[in-house]
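Standup notes
- DV: blocked on the single-chain target, sequence here:
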Amino acid sequence: MRAGVLDRARMLFEGMPEGNVVTWCAIISGCIQCRRSKEALALFSRMQTDGFEPNDMTLVSVLATCAHLGALEQGKWVHIYMRSNGIKISVFLGTLLIDMYATCGQVELGLKVFEEMQEENLLTYTMMIKGLAMHGRGFEVLRLFSDMEMSGFVPDDVAFIGALCACTHAGLVDQGHEILDSMTRQYGIKTKLEHYGCMVDLLAHNGLLDEARDLVESMPMEPDALVWGALMAGFKVHRNVELAEHAVKHLIRLEPDSSGVYVLLANVYASSGRCDDARKVGLLMKKQVEKTPGCSLVEIGGRIHQFLVGDIAHPQIKDILLKWHEIESRIRLEGYVPDKKAVLLNIDEEEKEDALARHSEKLAIAFVLLST
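- DV (later): unblocked, structure below
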């Protein structure tokens, strides 16, 4: 497995006359290392069916996998298993539980784990800050950041990233400036590209585009694609085509094979009414790069289902599309209007609506409602 030859490892594992917790842990960890997370969770279920109790190492691997896949039910089962078997939730396991719950959209459960922990460390606080920031709960992040400082934990550069992200979600520009300044002035932490990227994102999303551009151009290091991407996203929100084109030149130089750059510029053109320019960018993108299709994952009854944009291969695709049309007809009554400018194909209006209906997230949402 360390050599990446997982299939041969599986053959050896399946051919063993008997196994134990160590062999199960090894094969599950190997699947995770080889990026075969679904396989790891299937083996974890089999392990329990075969009567083997997972050890701490297995639980760590499975929690990390649940976070990666968004497999909430499996993650909840691990948590319940730990409680039922009297397994102490260590700082490390607690931090992984917080990450799993936050990543799976259940930040309240992550907060409950955090509050029940008898011991915390800097990583635990940082993970909780990151989880709250991920869900746009900026004011709570800043309160927790302050609590962390008062508890005697010195924030590291990752904690500051979480705090700056929280300022972006809450639109707190002045607090963002203060936090960035306190990093170097109070704690002596060197500002990294990630911090500048967060600050650029904060300024751009709040319409301070000139200040955001000035910050990028005055940075002591060369801006990377993430920094220019944050600036570009702000230009898209506020429809500043001239500055968007400026950012795209740098992005294409840094990431010539990235389809996202072209998509962003095309969306800026489309939202500004320059549909011909948007189509030209779409055609250029087809010649220059291969666009990775969007993908959404959902969990139903402990199983992970994957949907790709434009997916028509699912056995229930007809029912799924009917369900989405039902949803859309109801939300239209509340004022929803699909944004057909984002569809760059040269097709009629009805076909554009069909293309939008096959967005991977819409397919996944319709499937969940259909299944539950």
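- Follow-up: The chain has four domains: 1-103, 120-191, 193-292, 296-371.
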